[in-house]
Recover the amino acids of this structure.
């Protein structure tokens, strides 16, 4: 009996210690990190793709469903840059909203071209609940902050909603195609920063 | 005979060890099945208020923004503010945020509180601790398989796997199989 209680205690302690690790940050070690502003990233993130950067900004939104991404603003306050969690960060706390943070991370790029759009289109009919829950990393409207749909047989209303959702997604795909055509390039790029570590700056 | 004894021991002790995890995954599983109906991580309250005597944007300092928030509720504690677009002021307060249309004075208030218990359970369910917890939750998944298999052979006779147990086990396999046939 005592042995079993001891085993259980050890397992519980392990679980608790694992939970506490979630907010720890990692040493960047030898990485050469460039300091950039949010405005610089918004203006031309392409020059920093796959590079480690450090950026400071005010958090204006944290995803309410799972805290897997947040948005920071630059000087003008109107344009937002997306920051996602990384391997060492479990989630962003909604209490970060309104705080100034410094994030070290890697700039990521999603190339949105005809292949991507064709896959998106093909996947609409069979879109998984997970995809609808968390959205695509690229976040071009392919998914949102809302959660999974309840399981079970769809009512007429739900079918109607699904049709509307499908039609709005198809419209979104067409809009992106138009944007690509207007850009004069064969693709659009979506950029975000994947967090290695971050800290709240207290002023 | 000896195998059945070992299966009983495995079933009993795994059941004790993973009781907590079963409750965590069971409760959070229900919570996560209904994400369209509620947010299991946060309690979010939305309300509106009409503010009077709105100052011009250029006159809104930290102190002024703080007092605008306190016009709505004396307990609101100012954190920071910014302008998401022209004519709109967003004030972050400790309790959430207040977004004010500077032309009309209409304020949209969002108060956010962490939902106790469910937030912690979902944190574990999604394996957000990662690292060592991945091993522990893998052990739990393996234990569930062992619990299921050992459970089949706990009882002999009419109510065991050769009698009523066989029908119930078949039913439990058939139901998810029907869903697969219908929806996959």
């Amino acid at each position: 009996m005592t042995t079993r209680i001891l085993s259980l205690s050890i397992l519980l302690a392990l679980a608790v210690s694992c939970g506490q690790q979630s907010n720890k940050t990692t040493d960047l070690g030898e990485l050469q990190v460039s300091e950039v502003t949010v405005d610089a990233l918004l203006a031309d993130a392409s020059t920093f793709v796959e590079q480690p950067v450090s950026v400071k900004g005010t958090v204006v939104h944290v995803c309410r469903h799972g805290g897997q991404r947040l948005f920071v603003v630059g000087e003008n306050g109107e344009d937002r840059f997306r920051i996602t969690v990384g391997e060492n960060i479990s989630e962003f706390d909604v209490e970060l909203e309104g705080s100034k943070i410094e994030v070290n991370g890697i700039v990521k790029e999603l190339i949105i071209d005809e292949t991507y759009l064709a896959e998106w289109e093909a996947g609409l009919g069979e879109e998984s609940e997970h995809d609808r829950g968390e959205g695509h990393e690229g976040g071009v409207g392919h998914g949102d902050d809302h959660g999974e749909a309840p399981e079970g047989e769809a009512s007429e209303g739900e079918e109607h909603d699904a049709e509307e959702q499908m039609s709005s997604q198809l419209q979104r795909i067409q809009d992106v195609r138009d944007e690509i055509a207007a850009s004069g390039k064969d693709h659009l790029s979506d950029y975000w920063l994947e967090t290695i570590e971050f800290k709240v700056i207290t002023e | 005979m000896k195998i059945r004894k070992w299966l009983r021991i495995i079933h009993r002790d795994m059941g004790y060890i993973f009781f907590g995890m079963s409750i965590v995954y069971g409760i959070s599983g229900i919570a996560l099945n209904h994400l369209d109906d509620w947010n299991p991580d946060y309690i979010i309250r939305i309300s509106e208020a009409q503010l009077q005597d709105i100052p011009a944007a250029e006159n809104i300092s930290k102190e002024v923004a703080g007092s605008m928030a306190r016009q709505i509720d004396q307990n609101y504690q100012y954190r920071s503010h910014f302008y998401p677009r022209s004519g709109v002021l967003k004030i972050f307060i400790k309790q959430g945020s207040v977004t004010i249309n500077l032309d009309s004075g209409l304020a949209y208030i969002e108060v956010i509180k962490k939902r106790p218990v469910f937030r912690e359970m979902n944190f574990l369910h999604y394996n957000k601790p990662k690292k060592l917890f991945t091993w522990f939750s893998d052990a739990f998944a393996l234990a569930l398989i062992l619990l299921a298999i050992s459970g089949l052979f706990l009882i002999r006779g009419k109510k065991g796997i050769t009698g009523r147990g066989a029908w119930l086990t078949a039913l439990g396999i058939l139901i998810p199989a029907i869903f697969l046939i219908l929806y996959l």
In short: DSSP finds five helices and six strands in chain A.
